[in-house]
Amino acid sequence: MKLLVVEDHEQLSTNIRAYLNQEGYVCEVASNYQQAVEKLYAYQYDLVALDLMLPDGNGLDLLKAIKENWPHLCVLIISAKNALDDKIQGLNLGADDYLPKPFHLAELNARLKAIFRRKNQQGDNSVRFEEIALNTDNFEVKINETLLDLTRKEFEMLQYLLLNQNRVLTKQSIAEHLWGDYMDTADSFDFVYQHIKNLRKKITQAGGNDYIHTVYGVGYKFKKSA
Question: For the whole prediction, is pTM greater than 0.70?
Answer without folding.
Answer: no
